[in-house]
Amino acid sequence: MADDKFATFAALYNEIGQELGRITGGDPDGTYLYAEVEEGVTGGGVFKDEGKQVRYYDPSPLLLDLLDDLWHAEDPDKRWRAMEFSVTGNQVHAIFVFPEDFRSDHSTNERRQAALKVRYGDKPIIYPPIPDNFMEYKGTFGGSD
Predict the structure, then answer these.
(1) pLDDT tens digits for range 71-89
(2) What is the pTM of this model?
(3) In order of start, what are the domains of the chain with their CATH numbers?
């Protein structure tokens, strides 16, 4: 049984690494993923070290599905809340944050920015430009106007 679980995790790590390479346009070497998962909600950001700067990439639907699969493959009492996943050469490295160590008093963005600061220091992170047709919603949800 333990061998089956190990094989499942190894296969998912491999697929995640391959998808990171696809998202970043080639070799996954130098990619970093910050992800948070809970029942029904999976999110993350993909980053690629380009030397003097780091570039952000949106996660693909496939990557989010793979993260959800990885989370569900773990025993319910051993599931993590956040994961940092990096690829260096042909090696993958994963760090997990479990519910008891998860900073729920911070937003996802604050937690991700803190992880990026630890990983990259003051190296600039390049995000894609905001689309021209982007509109900010300023109403309320669930109520009548």
Answers:
(1) 999 999 999 999 999 999 9
(2) 0.85
(3) 2-126 (3.30.500)
